[in-house]
Amino acid sequence: MTEPAISTEALVKTYGRNRGLAGLDLRVDTGEVYGFLGPNGAGKSTTIRILLDLIRPTGGRVTVLGVEPRAGGVALRRRIGYLAGDFVVDGRQTARELLGYLANLRGGVPRRRIEELADRLGLDLGRRIKGLSKGNRQKVGVVQAFMHEPELLVLDEPTSGLDPFLQQEFVALVREARAAGQTVFMSSHVMGEVQQTADRVGIVREGRLIAVERVEQLRERAVRQVEIHFEDPVDPGTFAALPGVDEVTVDAGRTLRCRLAGRADALVKAAAGHTVVSLLAEEPDLEELFFTYYAGREADRVAA
Questions:
Q1: Number of structural domains, the chain?
Q2: What are phi and psi of 97, to 5 degrees?
Q3: What sequence ranges are listed for the domain ABC transporter (predicted)?
Q4: 168, 195, 216 — which closes off a domain?
């Protein structure tokens, strides 16, 4: 079996009486995009800081690209690209000067590569960092993470501050990295971003990994709010009896609103029996998805 890009076993991190990680077992395979999800305080950023040797674990074992982070030193850092959700650096330099400096630390990066990434993101390399907005500073962070084509990208809320168009450009960069055989470990609260890029998703709660799912499986568990406009009046009882459908209301006889859990097949087929004017299905945000997932697991545990 190929050695994983990231591996943790019974990883523990305590802060005095508080526990950030409580025995985290994690495996990220080489060449995959792994979404690391969980509510605030679940242990995501603590895990990432341990992987990068920014903090040390209290107990357990961790390897990154086959090496313990503490022992890997500069040689390991050069093989990793890291981006925090709020990219903060010395503001006196221009973006070009900063990226050139970081490129030299990583063994050198062709200037054309930096300029190409900056152009894709609409980043003015001649401006000083202190004069950039949060979104433009984040663009600098994206460039520095990707520019040296690292074996492993560790991205902590990477699109914070980026507008929707640039978030899509970021998605394209992640897909290109995967196609090139790079590994991406990404913490995110943008559900669409995860769905478009990740192969697998790990859900962490209270410092433990409680589930690992394929993205397709995660979507099937999601609860969506659905709104359908019909040309003619419909009977709400027809839809309320469908599997996975509840909280059905019909306004003026023609606008149906409901909550849908799981697959949409039965609802779509029932709607197809009428003339549909429009249909809107809202994806849940991650906090809602986590709550639904946790509640389901808790119910299963009680039933057992």
A1: 2
A2: -65, -45
A3: 6-231
A4: 216
